[in-house]
Amino acid sequence: MTFRSKVKLGFSWVTDSLALFKQHPAKWMGLSSLYLVFFQFLPILLLGIIEQINQAHGSIIILFLVGLLGLALTFSWPIFTSVVIGVCRETHAERTTSVTEIFHRVKPHAQQLIFLGVVFFVYRLIMIALTEADIQSMDIQQMDKEVMPIGFWWLMLKLLILQVPLLLATWYSPLLISYHQYSVFKSIGHSVWAALHNITALVTAWVALTLAVVGVMLVLGLVIGVIAIFAKGIAAFLGMMLIMFVSLMATAFLFSIQYFSFLSMYYKKGEDFVS
C-alpha cells in the first residue's frame, strides 16, 4: 500500500466508526460508560480509599478487600475489551447477538486474558519505578511558574517513550487471544508488529479523532460560553456534561477504530470472527 492509501484507510476507520455508532448510539454510550467507570474512575477512587485507610490505620480486612477489587478490575480489562470488539463485530455484521452470548464466547479465554492484564500491570509498575525519581526531584514551586522546568519535559518525554510500547502491545493482544487463540506473549509480540505495520493508518485515525473531538469541544464550548453570560450555574453544569459526553464519544470511537483496524489486518473481506 502507498502512503496515501494508508492515510485513506485510517480515515475510513473513523467514518466507518461513525456509521457504526449511528446504528446504536445508546449501546455504544453505555459500553463506554462501563469502561470509564470500572477501568478509569473506579481504580483511582479505590487508590484514594486505600490511602485513607492507611492513614487512619483502618481494618486490614477492608484494606485487603479494596485492594483485591482494584487488582481484579486492573487485570480484567482485556476481557471487557474483547467483549466490546465482539459487540462491534456483531453490530457491523447486522446480527442481533446479546452481550451475554458474546461474553460466553470470550469466557474460555478468560484465564489467558487475565494473565495478559497481569503482564501489563507489571509493566506499569516498572514505568512507575523508572519515573519515580524524576517525579520526586521536581520542585512544586517551579511548577507554578509560566515556564516549566527542564525536569518536567524530561519526565514527559520518558513517560511518552515508555507509553508507546504499551499502546502498541495492548492494541491487538486481547483480540488475538480471544479470536485467534494466541498465547499471551505471542499476542503481545504480534500486536506490536501489527500496530507498527498499520502505524500510518492508525496515527491518521487517532489524529482525525483527536481533531474531531477538539472541534466538537470548541463549538459546544462557545455555545456554553454564550449561555454563561446569562446563566453561570447552568453553563457550569453544561460544561461538565460536555466533558462527559465527549469522553464517552471518544471512548466509543477508539473501540470501533480498534475493531476496524483489527478487521483490516487479520481478516479477508467477508471473513467472520472465530472465538
UniProtKB/TrEMBL annotation:
<feature type="transmembrane region" description="Helical">
    <location>
        <begin position="205"/>
        <end position="230"/>
    </location>
</feature>
<feature type="transmembrane region" description="Helical">
    <location>
        <begin position="237"/>
        <end position="260"/>
    </location>
</feature>
<feature type="transmembrane region" description="Helical">
    <location>
        <begin position="113"/>
        <end position="131"/>
    </location>
</feature>
<keyword id="KW-0472">Membrane</keyword>
<feature type="transmembrane region" description="Helical">
    <location>
        <begin position="152"/>
        <end position="172"/>
    </location>
</feature>
<keyword id="KW-0812">Transmembrane</keyword>
<keyword id="KW-1133">Transmembrane helix</keyword>
<protein>
    <recommendedName>
        <fullName>Transmembrane protein</fullName>
    </recommendedName>
</protein>
<feature type="transmembrane region" description="Helical">
    <location>
        <begin position="28"/>
        <end position="48"/>
    </location>
</feature>
<feature type="transmembrane region" description="Helical">
    <location>
        <begin position="60"/>
        <end position="80"/>
    </location>
</feature>
